[in-house]
Amino acid sequence: xxxxxxxxxxxxxxxxxxxxxxxxxxxxxxxxxxx
Length: 35
Prior knowledge:
With 35 residues, the protein is an all-alpha fold. The protein has one helix at residues 7-29.
C-alpha cells in the first residue's frame, strides 16, 4: 500500500477496513444480501 498511500492515510484507513470487515461478517452470519 505504501506506493499509493502515506503513513497517515494507511493509519486512517485501517480502522475503517476493520469496521467494514466486521459488518460484512455480521451480514454473512445473518445471511443478509445487499438489496
